[in-house]
Amino acid sequence: MGAPDGGRSRRGGAGRDPPAPGGGAGAAGPPAAALLCAGGQIVKKSRYPRWNEMFEFELEEGAAEALCVEAWDWDLVSRNDFLGKVVFNVQKLCAAQKEEGWFRLQPDQSKNRRGEGNLGSLQLEVRLRDETVLPSGCYQPLVQLLCREVKLGTQGPGQLIALIEETTSTECRQDVATNLLKLFLGQGLAKDFLDLLFQLELGRTSEANTLFRSNSLASKSMESFLKVAGMRYLHGVLGPIIDKVFEEKKYVELDPSKVEVKDVGCSGLHRPQTEAEVLEQSAQTLRAHLAALLSALSRSVRACPAVVRATFRQLFRRVRERFPSAQHENVPFIAVTSFLCLRFVSPAIMAPKLFHLRERHADARTSRTLLLLAKAVQNVGNMDTPASRAKEAWMEPLQPTVRQGVAQLKDFITKLVDIEEKEELGLQRALSLQAPPVKEGPLFIHRTKGKGPLMSSFKKLHFSLTTEALSFAKTPNSKKSALIKPANIRAAEKVEEKSFGSSNVMQLIYEDDAGKPQTVYLQCRCVNELNQWLSALRKVSIGNPGLLGSYHPGVFRGDKWSCCHQKDKSDLGCDKTRSRVTLQEWNDPLDHDLEAQLIYRHLLGVEPALREKHRELSAGTEAGSVLTGPGGAPEDPLAQLLQVLRDLQEAHRSSPASSPPSEPSCLLELQT
């Protein structure tokens, strides 16, 4: 009987067998005589041991109905660890005539588990959407109509963007905002689209202190815009500060009602710190972090992407035009900080993993430090208003740094929005020459040598994936060497753990310049990184011709595949590929057709509301008739939109892709 996957090797002195608690390997019920039990060879330095040893048990007839085999991790100095057990029904095993097999270790339900506590539970909501993406030409009428509305702005007759916002529920507003933003970003109209939303929001806002505070389409679109266009900028400004907080792991607390003196010791004095000492030390730590962040932000004007600077400039100007009085002097600054600080920097501080600033979530102590730092940033972003100070009076020790930070932030915003048209165009051209990375980070590349991959042959390199190439370098700043063109990728899949004795390994199957199939094996640091890399590689190659339908999850070692033992190296594969299983992230490559399809799908869902709105708007015309232009097409943009939706419906019905494909295009979303 082999060791089950995930088992651990025994530890202890060589040649000694551990005592088998409860018989180790024995019978449940009357004891059975054992010719050989417990023990086996020790496999060191491996979490995935393979023993392949034979154990024989002599069972007296009628003495036992079940055979219980337990697995233990034996320690010389500490308590032996129970790993699990398997109970076999001897009669059923004989009747099945099964000679060998793998059996999963089960917990011992008979042991008292009351002291283990409740581990809680996680509930997931899974949505599977099957989207058929039509050829680009089918979406052109929809894209052109929406682009025309954005170019016309508030002067347009139809106000389709406003109608879309009006008919969009709060639950799906973020998805719609992201799809529209990416569509217009691909058309070079992201700034114009956001400017239109700014004007629409300003037109219905009378109180300056409520500006951009709701979850409007403008707010949601700006959140998506900053993630798509400004994430690398955020990493450069915020990354070093976040890393320092994680590395220091200091106990920080400003709220006297939450101070726990026992958690902090004063090593030099051999006594616990007083509450006042904890509060003062915490204030010093937070002031240092806040000052470092504001200083980094002040120096980052030129590092901010041109399209982000231009958008903030437009926002600043629109708000100043809407609220020109002296009493509203800070309103344009607060409008910028409401997005930059409150919806971008502060959320990234509180949850750095969600913004790819850290690989793991913070522990409780670090999380509290990050939360207090985020509150301080919010106070600076609110321009240190009396209402902000009164909300949490115990933040008072940070006030000197906050007041200084307000002046720094205003100076930074003034410089940020002071960008000339020529400079903006020049920066945009320079940025357009570089393909932005879809994914980057360290990976271990496994080398192949002789008859197959060597478990110890790997090297850590920094990889960068764009829509043009998968490149690598010794360090993030060294010269990059192209490894694979995304157009040559045929599959990106996981590798079985047993193939290398390591987890989180993926394989990239591609064609070289000579058209020959090649495979490269890359190991990630954790399972999250593995899934993110697989998703990114699949997204840049999803439209490639010749994608594989099957693959080998193992490796070809010696003369056979480790997964299915087939001896033909060119065998098609024993498992299906998952080229369309991807994550939906802010750094996804722009896919104009997919975004147009998702917008169409949303508009189709709210079509009844759009029709009702059209009936209201056309009530003034004769019998509700629709005005048409010279070519017979409706002049009313809303009527045009309804016609476009009907045409796309017909295109979907008549498209061959509407029939069930061999591999449907699905969007899988997990929500906690």
Ordered list of secondary-structure elements with their pairings:
Blueprint: E1 25-28, E2 66-73, E3 81-89, H1 90-96, E4 125-130, H2 136-152, H3 160-166, H4 173-186, H5 190-203, H6 217-248, E5 265-266, E6 271-272, H7 275-298, H8 306-322, H9 331-350, H10 364-381, H11 386-391, H12 399-416, H13 421-432, E7 439-449, E8 452-465, E9 470-473, E10 481-484, E11 489-494, H14 497-500, E12 505-511, E13 517-523, H15 527-541, E14 550-551, E15 556-557, E16 560-561, E17 575-576, H16 592-605, H17 607-617, H18 637-654, E18 666-671
Antiparallel strand pairs: 1-2, 2-3, 4-18, 5-6, 7-8, 7-13, 8-9, 9-10, 11-12, 12-13, 14-17, 15-16
Keyword list:
672 residues; GTPase Activation - p120GAP, domain 1; PH-domain like; three-stranded antiparallel β-sheet; 18 helices; 18 strands; globular
Structure description:
GO terms for molecular function: GTPase activator activity; phospholipid binding; zinc ion binding. Keywords: Calcium, GTPase activation, Metal-binding, Repeat, Zinc, Zinc-finger. Residues 436-542 form the PH domain. There is one protein chain. The chain is globular and about 95 Å long. The chain is of the alpha+beta class. It has 18 helices and 18 strands. Mean pLDDT is 78; it is low at 1-38, 113-117, 428-435, 450-456, 623-634 and 659-672. Among the domains are: 21-112, no CATH class; 230-419, GTPase Activation - p120GAP, domain 1 (Orthogonal Bundle); 439-576, Pleckstrin-homology domain (PH domain)/Phosphotyrosine-binding domain (PTB) (PH-domain like). Strand 8 (452-465) and strand 9 (470-473) form a beta hairpin. It has helices at 90-96, 136-152, 160-166, 173-186, 190-203, 217-248, 275-298, 306-322, 331-350, 364-381, 386-391, 399-416, 421-432, 497-500, 527-541, 592-605, 607-617, 637-654; strands at residues 25-28, 66-73, 81-89, 125-130, 265-266, 271-272, 439-449, 452-465, 470-473, 481-484, 489-494, 505-511, 517-523, 550-551, 556-557, 560-561, 575-576, 666-671.
